[in-house]
Amino acid sequence: MKIIEALKQIKDLSRKADDLVIKVQHNSAYLSHETPAYVDQKQQVQEWLQAHSDLLKEILRLRVAIQKTNLETDVTIELAGKNVTKSIAEWIHRRRDLAKAEREIWAKLTDRGLKEGLLQQSVGDPILVKIVRCFNPAERDKKIDEYTSEPMLIDSRLEIINAITDLIE
Question: Fewest CB atoms within 10 A around its CB: which of 23, 39, 63, 65?
Fold first, then answer.
């Protein structure tokens, strides 16, 4: 089974489990004067409870297999002209929030609204003030662009990897 197949199966199993929750909710009791919806409704509810438990066990098995696969499978992605190899799990974390965090710190490198020009002192002649940047604006712009593009590059590569990588169980 490929990773993508396991992901899709988890989604379907979760849907089935949700359906069973609704069935149990609507059929777990009835009044003595009512006709039960099922011949042996008590037995039917027990079967749904067992089926729900079985579905959750299968979801857990698949999730753990996906995690194991994600930890053990290395993927190389070209970023900023360099081939970078990380596990699928590491790429997922980069995609989820770490690339964004990198972009955000680089985006904080600004002139802070400071202005260059003549500054009148309380005594004496005005002095010329210049902004002293503690960063390279060209490097900042390049890094912001790289970290903005990184999630899309990760998504593209992982879509392919999820389709071709066998689940490790």
Answer: 39
Q: Which two tokens stand for residue 87?
A: 């596990």
- Whether 38 and 95 map to the same domain: the answer is no
The answer on 157 and 78 residing in a single domain is yes
Q: Are residues 102 and 153 in the same domain?
A: yes
- Distance, in Å, from the CA atom of 73 to the CA atom of 7, rounded to the nearest integer, reads 16
Q: How many domains, in total, are found in the chain?
A: 2
Contact 165, 3 (CB under 8 A): yes
Residue among 46, 40, 49, 43 nearest 20 (CA)? 49
pTM over 0.70: yes
Residue at a domain's end among 72, 95, 126:
72
Answer positive or negative: Cα dihedral of 143, 148, 154, 160.
Answer: negative
- Pick the range with the lowest mean pLDDT from 16-20, 23-27, 62-66, 115-119: 115-119
- Say if residues 168 and 68 touch (Cβ distance below 8 Å): yes
In angstroms, the CA 16 to CA 169 distance is 23
SS3 (DSSP) at 131 = coil
**Residue 144: strand, helix, or coil:** helix
169 domain residue, yes or no: no
